[in-house]
Amino acid sequence: MPHSVRIPINNTYAKGGYCARVHIGHHQHPVNLVLDTGSSTLAVHNGSYKPEHDTTLQPTSLAQDVIYGKGGWYGPVVTTRVRMGLPGHSAALNKVKVAVTCKEQAQSFVDADGILGLAYSGLNPAYDLEQYLQANQVSPAHSYPFLMNAAQQDKSVHQYRQFLHQYPRRQLTPYFTQLEEQGVVANQFALLTHRSSIYQTDSCCPLAKLAAHHLNQGLFVLGKPKLHLDLYREPFRSIKVLDDKYYNVELLGLQLGEGQSLEAPRLQSNEQPGYRTNAIIDSGSTLVVLPQALFQALMEQFYAINPDFQALLAPFQTFSGEEAGIPLAKLNLSDWPPLHLDFTGEQGMPVRLTLKPETYWQAHAPKSNQAYFKITTVPDWPNQSILGLPLLNNYYCLFDRSTGGTGTIRFATKRDFSGHLLGHLSKEFSHLKPDN
Q: Mean pLDDT, the chain, as a whole number?
């Protein structure tokens, strides 16, 4: 009988992105993995996992690579045991496909140990290197530990991608899909989060103290999130997932406060094969990324409300790759209107969600007494909006993959999670070695 599991999550290791503690292998080694609805691969850093000590590890002839907006990696694929949750309240599965990274670009996982993709199977390809391994007299023809050898790591991630993709492609079943297919949990999960940047209490605050702060914590609910009535208030507002390459949805437009609605641009014909729809819901993004034309129209509306906003927003006109805030004393959030987003709903009618000023501005980020604006654009970006944590932070977000083929994303007013869990949350994230 599928059950439902609450898993503590924390945003300090991935600089705003939320990590769950995951236990891997026979030794159940704990690692912090970023929860990402924008990808499907389970990958863990070699030094964090220590696969050489895992007696349940089974090597394969497969290898994987992923290139993100920032960062990327490649490495061999193994199978092993994976468990999530607190003792006595967890979900576990054997023979899970796990990629062990043997080369990473800077900032791939920030200070996390890897990534846990929560999207569909289409984003979890691997490549079968059996032919290459046999040609190199590797017997048995296993990618691990052969690819971990320093001699195999002379290529950059982008160069290795060209090499790897010439071999037969195999589609792997993602971890969450395996959990559902084997009846461990129902085909649903939910996220309850507060922030899209770390809440900084002071400039010299140790990581353990930041991790223990309530605003840097959250919950990941595996299977049947509606059962957890203490976490939300009905009703749910439901958005149809229109394509399962990502969690693809249709953004109809934006409205800033009581201002004029701004229509969201459609994908260009040449963008449709790769991007599918004009918006995705992506928990792995700590920003809301808008197409340039829509972003500029939104900025003009901010300036029309208050000309002083222009100077405050000037540092945030494009994504630089690094957070740099403005003095918090200059920001009065009561002056800033909510931002409404209209989507195609589950029944085909428009559904409205709202970003509050305190989520599209993050106070005490990236440093104490600073503020960071979380809506941006990227040069030459297609007509697709990436709707990340600044949107999700406002709601209890339920990803229901059991309905309508490609699923539905449901949003309800969040309640704070039960106070008695705070001790468990702090304890769960207090035992990592300092260099994690």
A: 91
- Respond yes or no on whether the N-terminal peptide bond of residue 390 is cis (omega within 30° of 0): no
Question: Is-contact 63 155, C-beta < 8 A?
Answer: no
Indicate whether 435 belongs to any domain.
no
Spatial contact of 63 and 75, defined as CB atoms under 8 Å apart: yes
Same domain, 181 and 236: no
Min mean pLDDT across 85-94, 241-250, 348-357 is at 85-94
Q: Could you tell me which residues come within 8 angstroms of residue 273 by beta carbon, excluding any fewer than 6 positions away? A: none
* 3-state per-residue secondary structure call for 285-296: CCCEECCHHHHH
Number of domains in the chain: 2
Predicted pLDDT at 156: 85
Contact 218, 19 (CB under 8 A): no
Look up the domain containing 85 and give its range.
5-185
Tell me the pLDDT band of 420, cut-offs 50, 70 and 90.
very low
> What is the phi/psi pair of residue 285, to 5°?
-100, 130
Q: How many whole angstroms separate alpha carbon 217 and alpha carbon 198?
A: 10
